Amino acid sequence: MILKELYLYPDLKYYPDSIVHPFRDQSRSVCNFLEREIKAIKFDANGFKRICVVGSSSPREECIINSSKILVVEVQFDSTEYSGLDEANLNAYFSKMLHSGFEKCSRQFVIPLLDLKLGLEKFIAEGGVNEWTFKSKQFKGIGLKCSLVCKLTTTSFHLVLVVSKSGVEILRTEILKTDPDELVFSPMFKDILLDGGSLVVVDKLGDPLFFKKVKDFEND
User: Fold this and answer.
1) Is the pTM of this model over 0.85?
2) Residue 217 pLDDT greater than 90, yes or no
3) Considering its fold, how many domains does the chain have in total?
């Protein structure tokens, strides 16, 4: 079973939605970054496909694998401390909780501890920026290279279309902004296509998210 998913959130049974919902959204940036960092190693976990680090005022000592094949580890969480943080300090706070959770997991289960810790170090060293290129396509017939660039922050997700011609960027425009939740933004884009005389970005159902006539790029 390949470990693919990492989550961090407060205890769903104990804390109100006014704490859980923003925390879970804000923590997706660092967790998503780590998921992409460990994707390449294809870590074969023994009995679990996801690690959930759960914040609790009284964390249990034992980690468990539940019936959904999720490894759950509880770590110390102070909701008052969290609520007093400004946006600039959130990623460091989340990283500290994740580091504590991974260390605790490793004492009971085999996990890719070094890779996860290095991923956290890299994330913090890069200023907590989670940005990646989702897809790039070269359309030789019209001489354009088009890329979908994603950026996930503690407050929002951004999708930017970047178009270059002969190595020179001629367009950079944000075509999507949503809450920082993969369940919201992931279905909303899939590919870049040429349809007739237009460049089209389509969602997972094949419906257009953005389009622009190729001839209009000559004026950009």
Assistant:
1) yes
2) no
3) 2
